[in-house]
Input
Amino acid sequence: MLNLRLYMLQRVTALLMAPLVLGHLAVMIYAVQGGLSAGEILGRTQGSILWFAFYGTFAAAVAVHGAIGLRSIACEWVGLRGRALDAFMWLTGLSLFAMGARAVWAVTFA
Amino acid sequence: MTQETLKVTIDRGPDTAHVQTVFDVPAYTNQTVLDVVSWVQQNADPTLSYRYACRVGMCGSCAMMVNGVPRWTCRTHISKVLRGNAVTIAPLRNLPVIKDLAVDMDPFFDKWVAAEGVHHGALTRDDPIAPVDTSTAARAVADAGIECINCSVCYAACDTVTANDDYLGPAALQRAWTLLNDAKDDGRAAILDAVSDKGGCHNCHSIGSCTTYCPNDLDPMSAIAGLKRETAKSLFQRWR
Amino acid sequence: MRATGVTARAHPLWLAYILHRLSGLGLALFLPLHFWVLALAMTDPARLDGFLRLTEASAIKLAEFGLVFLLAVHMFGGLRLMALEWLPWTASQKTLAASAAAVSFLIATLFLLKAV
Amino acid sequence: MRISDIERHDTDILILGTGGAGLFAALHAQQTAPEGTRITIAVKGLIGKCGCTRMVQGGYNVALGGGDTVERHFMDTIQGGKWLPNQDMAWRLCEQAVVRIRELENEVGCFFDRNPDGSLHQKAFAGQTADRTVHKGDLTGIEIINRLMEKVLASGVEKMQEHRAVGLIPTKDRSALAGVLMIDMRTGHFRLVRAKTVLMATGGGPTMYKYHTPSGDKTMDGLAMALRAGLPLRDMEMVQFHPTGLLAGDHTRMTGTVLEEGLRGAGGRLINHAGQRFMFDYDAKGERATRDVVSRGIYAEMRKTNDPAQEGVFISMAHLGPENVRQKFKGMVKRCADSGFDLAGGLVEVVPTAHYFMGGVVVDVDTRTAMEGLYVAGEDAGGAHGSNRLGGNGVANSTVYGGIAGDTMGRDVVHMTLRDPDENVLAAEFERATFPLTRKPDLILPLRKQLQEVMWDEVGVMRTEAGMKRGLGGIAQVSGALMDVGVNASNLAFNLTWHDWLNLRSLCDVSEVITKAGIARENSRGAHYREDFPDPGAMEDSDFTVATQDGETVTITREPVQFTIVKPGESILPADAPNTLVAVQ
Ligand SMILES: Cc1cc2nc3c(=O)[nH]c(=O)nc-3n(C[C@H](O)[C@H](O)[C@H](O)COP(=O)(O)OP(=O)(O)OC[C@H]3O[C@@H](n4cnc5c(N)ncnc54)[C@H](O)[C@@H]3O)c2cc1C
Ligand code: HEM
Ligand code: SF4
Ligand code: F3S
Ligand code: FES
Output
């Protein structure tokens, strides 16, 4: 079900996300003080290449990582096998990526 | 003194309906789980099926689920597993039941072979025996898993085996790891390929039940981690 | 094959495994929601603000706390797993598993305290 | 069930048993036989997981230089066997062991313990004049069988697991073997497997004694089948007892299992119920004397006590330092602890326990028998050990001769064809195996216990004519009673009780032969000790017993030993060779 390539991809994306998650948490802890507002978020992120790269990588990594993770669960707990399993993985991965990309675009350049 | 009795509940098969039979078994001072099962067959229900051979923890054919835990029954004293005076005994998990407490171990051994758990080498009986330096780190790693008696207890304990038919399982992978570290074995490429296949080591989630329940105190989880490292390394080498 | 009551799970590494899996699953289910909310910034900033105001409510706060908790649990669980697989450690794995949960709990609590 | 329900199956080479002999035969047959030869391996348990080879602890005897020679190994074997071994077989055993150990290490992939310089580590069992025993800790058999098992499982031979052989079916003229009748234990169905050549490697196993070490699947089936097929069996009185079997009570299968030899070697003491050491009363070497001597010492001591509540004697290790013992004998200490005994610090009760069967089918040095198409190797074959087997020669014997059998069959099979079975014999064997299914069911265990008591008391460690005659009566009683005990036939799939019946049937049949051979040998040699004839007799006039069954009667004859290589009193070692190379302890 998981082969060496998928395994490595999942580990590499996990490693990539670790600092991103910490960064994201730090920002959030800082940001929620005194409440959140759309303006505040957008003010920080709007038009910033840096934030675009930060969240863009995050969204891409999470899509790959999450899709592979859900694949394991779908195989072991739902019993999906073979082509259905591959299709499920691609579908979740692509939709996760699409939604993530849209969100990142929304808070940065849209 | 009146003889104490044990309440022994035994799963009967192979029918999928969950049938259990309860027996009253006299308690004795020295009594293993296997002795309890044997008593039932010899005295109470002659049709009860189970398997054993060596009766001393060497052959690995007597493993069963005892109160939901996989154990070798010939070396488990009944006092260790009694709850009050009751115990439940079922066939080993993750293998097809032939009848009652006897399971078909073929899938376990098929996977053992599929993991390349067989010596690879070019030397013959006409060559001298190769000297082996036993002080190397690799030899220590190979020795760590060599005493596996293929009892399938770890295989029964592993949830990944339950969930994924293809998964080779802890014992077979541990055997592959032993061979990979054996200076006498030439099968490196074949082993790495076999354990990277779809049922290979990468399916293991390090649940660790294998290591927790191995009656021989072996550590398949760490062996599998070793395979993950080696396969990852070989991937980088291929990329280079 | 037949499911029997399996108690062969009552050990720290199994708990670490199930925690990691459930937190991963939780995150994967939450993420689309999170993305959708953020995408509102583009389509309907007012509604985004509405959502963000909701975070003031304590029920929502609890949910937020839960999500950060999930993320922390999952991340440390994942780091634990990778350490266990790639660094040839052996004995101390159980302690590692336990401390991962502890640390993540700590971070989440920190977050909660800051937020109130 | 009717005879027409027997399923028929053909193969070219059929192997019965998966101990050292059976597994090696499978590998060698595959190497020697022409491409396309069908090889089938049938076994009463699971491949490689039953039988005694797996239970080997001490190790594997082989002369690998360092002063030791094949000649010295041979002389030890002949002297250990008290000049009764077939010398050509013993020679081949010692000589081929050298090849087999290289094969085990190089081709099969076994890993045996090493010296610091990387060469094989060897130690000395009692009765040997060189450090000769190759081992893997004290779990040598597990290493040998696991590696062999992997090879065989990967080899693609046809597997018939949990198939019990119940009868050898000859051709009409009885000159050759046509096939073997088996029960598929998992379903309870019968199967007749015809083969051009058949190896019987079912491994003897003297489990008709109250205390015994072999695995539960070994019940002398092979020798009982050979007897019925009219084959001559030799040395049938020779049952080896291991001095220290665990005594844990009547109700546990742990009773009788071996506490290893090394415990005494390391300085373990035997203590009687009065708290005294006694072995020096029997032999100058004390606890370190050979197996037969120590077994007799313990037995004599037990008889002196003569108190049913105080059955065995004790082994004590504590004076060596419990921590030290725990470390050095980790496996043994753990095993005792599992059944509630403290080997390292306390006393563990022990008794002599039936361990190995020296007797067996008469074969030539290529494992051929008197019946064309039938080959016998391993513990089922007689001759290599004579009256006593050296520790470490058992597994050497089964692996050496298993390999030879595989090679011989692989070559012979070319000239052979499938033969037609004698349907009358087939019907008789079928009747015999299904007999209990037609009787009223009852418990079998009490009869097995009864046989075990009789054999232990009357045909055990020390024997007399009067005792053995009583023994014959006792065996006949059990044997007769068994024919009145039926088995519930409602479900024959994995019906262990049916197999308990068949096991006891084999044990009764062979017990009778052991006893008759014991009565016939009026001297004391090796494992056979006659209180009424304590003398060994003149070595030059050595003869061995041969038992054959014709119809219902067993007759014992005697044949002189042929000293084809060395005569009593002589040696093939150079005149200046030292008596022993083992450093005195
Ligand atoms: C506890 C113990 C320790 C020992 N230690 C040593 C030692 O240290 N050194 C040494 O040299 N020797 C030792 N021996 C002796 C050694 O194990 C035997 O000499 C040798 O292994 C016999 O090998 P085998 O292949 O003939 O028989 P086994 O290995 O016993 O195999 C017999 C096979 O035949 C099968 N079988 C039986 N009946 C049937 C049937 N009816 N149909 C089909 N299959 C059947 C069995 O299931 C089994 O697979 C020890 C023995 C025991 C019991
Ligand atoms: C820094 C952050 C993260 C790290 C270090 C990490 C690490 C890991 C690792 C190592 C695995 C493999 C588990 C196994 O094979 O048993 C895994 C599985 C998984 N991850 Fe993550 N992960 C992180 C973030 C995320 C995020 C944000 C999601 C949300 C989509 C996620 C979802 C999953 C899922 C669903 C699984 C499958 C669980 C399983 O197979 O048991 N992970 N993670
Ligand atoms: S690793 Fe342990 S539990 Fe698993 S088969 Fe080997 S001995 Fe049994
Ligand atoms: S229990 Fe199973 S998942 Fe891995 S660590 Fe052991 S094989
Ligand atoms: S009967 Fe052999 S391990 Fe239990």
